[in-house]
Amino acid sequence: MKYIANRLVFFVITLFFALTLNFILPRLMPGDPAERILSQFGPNVDERAVEAMRIALGVEKDKNLFSQYVDYLKNTFTGNFGVSYLYYPVQVKDVLATSIPWTIGLVGISTVLSFLLGTFLGIYGGWSRDKPAGSVLLISSLLLRSIPYFWLGMLFLYIFGYRLGWFPISNAYSTKETLTGLKLVLSVIYHAILPSITLIIASLGGWILTMRNNMISILAEDYITLAEAKGLDKKHIMIHYAARNAILPSITAFGISLGFVVSGALLTEVVYSYPGVGYQLYRAVISQDFPLIQAIFFFISLSVLIANLLMDFIYAFLDPRVRG
Amino acid sequence: MFEVINLNAGYEFRDKFVHAVRNVSFKVEKNDFFGIAGESGCGKSTLVLAALRLLKKPGKIMSGKILVDGKDLLTLNDSEMKELRWKKIALVTQSSMNSLNPVIKIKDQMSDVLIKNHGYSKADAHELVQKNLELVGITADRMDSYPHQLSGGLRQRVVIAMALLMSPSVIFMDEPTTALDVVVQRSILQQIEELRKQKAFSAVFITHDISLLFEMATKIAIMYGGEFVEIGEAHSVYSNPMHPYTKGLLEALPSISKNLEKYKSIPGRPIDLSLNIAGCPFRERCSYAFEKCEVEKPELKFVNGRWTSCHLY
Questions:
Q1: Do B103 and A230 touch (CB under 8 A)?
Q2: Which member of B54, B95, B103 has the closest CB to residue A229?
C-alpha cells in the first residue's frame, strides 16, 4: 500500500513537471508566436491583427507569465488546447480525438502482440540456446533487429501494396464508399495489416534478444541448479524458475514502449499515410502548428507516465522484492 | 550406498577439452561425512555436478559409473532419475544468496518437488515443510516469507531444510557456508552435525576450507588438478599427511599455537586443466620432486591405511 501511494505521488509530481516544461519550451523560442504565424501571410502585418492573435494564443504582452501559466493549466485540464493552425478553424482536441484512437488501435495492439510473441520466443531461445533451434532464433532476431523499419515499411508497401495489390497503400479504412458495422471493422483490419506487421517485425527482434539474454543469465543461478537437482520437470523450471525471473527487466522495457504508443510510430504512419498521432505530429511540425504540437507532447508525456505507473503496479505484483 | 567409479568429466569446447574430473573414484558409506578439499579451480564443483548428473553443456561426463544403491545413475532414464532425485540424493548449493528463487514463497519452493514429483497433497507437503524448517530452527511464521526477507544465514538453513525434506541417503553440500561470516558458519555447521546424527544421512562436503573439514569429516579426499591425490580417515590425514600437497595445505593453515614462521604457503599456481601433463601434475610446486616425477604419473596406492598418489611411497 505504501508502495502504491509512493508511486502515485511520484506520478503527480512528474506530471506536473512535464506540464510545466511543455509550457516553458515554446516560450523559450525566439520571437513572438503571433508575429510568426501572421508573417506567413505576408510582410505587412497589421499591429491590431497581431494583438488579436496574441489574445487568441493567450500570450498577451500585458499578461504576466504566471497568469499565462495558470490559464495554460486550466485549459489543459479542461481539454481546451486551442485552435489548430493547420486545420483552422478545427479545435486541437477534435484533431486529436480523430487520430488518437487510430494510433492506440494500431500501435498499441502491435506493441502488445510483438512483446508477447517476442518474449515467448525469447524464453524458448534462451532455454534451448545449445540446440539448433536456439541458434536459428538468435540469428534471425539479430537480423530482424538490424532492419530499419521505415525501409521495411516502404518495401512492404511497394511489394504487397503497389506491385501485388494485396493490401491498400494508405488510410485506415476505405474512403471510396461509406461503410458501417462489420464491413467497417473488416476494412479497418484490412488497412491495418501491413503497418501492423511492419511494427511487429521491427520490434520483435529486440524483445526476443532481451528475453533470451535475461533467460541465459538467470539459468546460471544456483536456484536453477537446485531445481534441476530436485528433479522438477524441465517445463516447470523453464516457466516458474527461469522465465518468471527473466521477465522482470522485460516488463520495465515494455512499460516504456507502451508509453510511447500514443506518440505513434511516426515513420510507419507517415509511410502508410495512416491518420494517427504520429502522422499528425509530422504534419504539425512541417506546418508549425504549435497548439497541436504542444497538445500532442502533453498526451505523450501523460501516456508515458500512465504506462510507467501501470508497470510499477504490475512489477510490484510480479516481484516481491519491490513491494518491500 | 553411493559410489563413484573412475569418473571422467569436463568441458568440451571447439578447440580444447578442459578435463576437470580425472579418474575420480570414491565411496560414501552410511553415516559418512565425506569431505573433499582443494583449491579453487581444482574441479570440486564439476565433480559434484557430474556425480548428480547435473552437468550441462559444454560440460560432459566422458566415462565412469555413479552407483546409488547399486544402480548406475548414468544408465537411468528421465523418469527413473526423477523418482530418485531428492529421495536418495539431494544438494545444498554454494551461495546462500542465489540458492532460492526470489519470486516464490519459501513454503512453495520447498514443497513443489513433493507435490509435483512425489504425490504429496498440498497440505501434507506444507506440513512436512514446516516440520523440516523447525528442525533447522525456523519458525512456521517464516513459511510465507520470500527469500529476500530472510538473512543469509536463515536462507542457507532453508536450503538445508529443503535438502532434508525426503530424508535422502546422501546430501551433497557444495561450499554451503562460503558466503557467510564465521559466526554464522559455525552455527550452521553445528546444525548440520546435529541433523546428521538425528536423521542419519551421509554428507559429501566440498570446501576449500580444509581446517573445517578436519574438524567435521570422517573421511577426507584432497583434490588437485582434477584428481584425488590422497584419500583417508580425516584424523589420520590430519596427524600424518602423506602427499606433499596435503602437507603443504596443512602447513598453510594459520594456528594460534604454532609460531608464524612455520606458516608457509604452497608456491606456484594450480595447473591448467585443459593440458595433459606427463608425470606428476603437482611436481612443479613440489619440494620433494625427483626425476621419476617428471616422466611417470603416480597412481593411487594403498599405503598406511590410506590412498595416496605420490612416488615417495
A1: no
A2: B54
Question: Residue B57's closest chain A neighbor by CA?
Answer: A130
With a pLDDT cut of 90, the percent of chain A lying above it is 35
Report the C-alpha gap between B52 and B170 in whole angstroms: 11
Flag residues of chain B having pLDDT under 70. 95-96, 255-263
d(CA B151, CA B272): 37
**What is the predicted pLDDT for the residue at B262?**
64
A31 — pLDDT class (breaks 50, 70, 90):
low
* Average confidence (pLDDT) over A136-158: 90
CA distance A139 to A215: 17
Whether A47 and A36 have beta carbons less than 8 Å apart is answered as no
Query: What is the distance between the alpha carbons of residues A269 and A202, in angstroms, rounded to a whole number?
Result: 14
Those residues whose C-beta lies under 8 Å from the C-beta of residue A29, and which sit 6 or more positions away, are none
Higher per-residue confidence, B116 vs A288: B116
**In angstroms, what separates the C-alpha of B117 from chain A's closest C-alpha?**
7
The CA distance from A252 to the nearest CA of chain B, in Å, is: 16
Chain segment A230-284, per-residue pLDDT in tens: 999 999 999 999 999 999 999 989 988 888 887 767 888 888 888 889 899 988 8
Question: Which residue of A225, A231, A318 is in closest CB contact with B81?
Answer: A231
Q: What is the pLDDT of residue A148?
A: 85
Q: Which residues pair with B17 in a beta bridge?
A: B12
Is it the case that residue A42 has pLDDT exceeding 80? no
Task: Tell me if A225 and B116 make a contact (CB, 8 A cut-off).
Answer: no
Q: What is the pTM of this model?
A: 0.84
Residue B261 gets which letter from DSSP? G
AA letter at B161: A
Tell me the per-residue pLDDT of B208-238, one tens digit each, with 9 for 90 and over: 888 888 888 999 999 999 999 999 999 999 9
Residue A294 is placed in which grid cell?
504542444
Question: Which residues are within 8 A (CB) of A289 and not within 5 positions of it... i.e. 6 or more apart?
Answer: A84, A85, A86, A283
Question: What are the DSSP E strand ranges found in chain B?
Answer: 2-12, 17-28, 33-37, 59-68, 71-72, 89-92, 170-174, 202-207, 219-224, 227-233, 301-303, 306-308
Q: How far is B176 from chain A (nearest CA, A)?
A: 12
| pLDDT of the residue at A59 | 66
Contact state of A225 with B103 under an 8 Å Cβ cutoff = no
In chain B the first and final C-alpha atoms are separated, in Å, by 30
Show the cell assigned to B178: 562460503
Q: Which residues of A touch B49 (CB under 8 A)?
A: 225
The DSSP code sequence of B20-72 is EEEEEEEEE-TT-EEEEE--TTSSHHHHHHHHTT---TTEEEEEEEEEETTEE
Identify whether the C-beta of residue A274 lies closer than 8 Å to the C-beta of residue A230: no
ipTM: 0.89
CA of B87, closest CA in chain A: separation in Å?
A: 9
Q: Which of A222, A236, A320 sits opposite B116 (nearest CB)?
A: A236
- Nearest beta carbon to residue A225 from set B93, B102, B117: B93
- Alpha carbon A127 to its chain centroid, in Å, reads 30
